[in-house]
Design brief:
Jelly Rolls; 434 Repressor (Amino-terminal Domain); globular; single chain; alpha+beta; 195 residues; 2 domains; three-stranded antiparallel sheet; six-stranded antiparallel sheet
């Protein structure tokens, strides 16, 4: 199942109105300009993973609730069978599969991510994003160019990187084929404790 992005945008707008947060406050919380925020909320611009993650943090809900309209409810354990999980296709064809969408009060967000290969992306700077917390990425197949501020590393199957995701980071598939990697987004300890 893939979330209906129109419904996601409606949920964000409704929650923002319910808790009395202005578009300016949301823009600041999500790290975009007020114009960019309004374009995302109205449907004129694509929602990025970082944007969705930050919206959930600012509105005090799990990102999964924004995506599905349902609160995660499992507490003991959660099983996701191979090839399933909550599918989220965002940012230039990147496909995320959330591996614990129904687990409540997660300390981390686990994903299998497939980065498409793009010949155009091989030249020039890699787009960087930021979100609170830390992240661990483990390459399963293909090759990945990881950028962290002004540093780059080329990673292959079995390679891993752990980093402060509050600093600029990004990645692209290299080597002429898509790259699949496990991404564990660890929430900021202070933000997680305040929920």
């Amino acid at each position: 199942m893939e979330p209906d992005i129109r419904q996601v945008k409606r949920r964000i707008r409704s929650l923002r109105d319910d808790v009395g947060v202005s578009t300016g406050d949301m823009a600041e919380a999500t790290g975009v300009s007020a114009t960019e925020y309004e374009a995302m909320e109205s449907g004129d611009a694509e929602l990025t993973f970082t944007f969705l993650y930050r919206c959930g943090e600012r509105l005090g809900v799990d990102m999964i609730e924004l995506l599905t309209g349902e609160s995660p409810h499992l507490t003991g354990y959660s099983v996701v069978k191979a090839g399933t999980g909550l599918k989220i296709t965002r940012r230039a064809g990147f496909e995320y599969r959330h591996l614990a969408p129904n687990f409540s009060h997660k300390l981390a967000e686990p994903f299998v991510v497939t980065a498409p290969y793009s010949a155009e992306e091989q030249e020039g700077a890699i787009a960087l994003s930021r979100h609170d917390g830390q992240e661990f990425d483990y390459v399963v197949s293909g090759h990945l160019r990881f950028a962290f501020e002004d540093h780059t590393e080329d990673l292959g199957p079995g390679d891993a990187v752990f980093y402060d995701s509050g600093r600029g980071h990004g990645m692209i598939a290299i080597g002429g084929e898509p790259c699949t990697f496990l991404a564990i987004v660890l929430k900021d300890a202070d933000a997680a404790a305040s929920r």
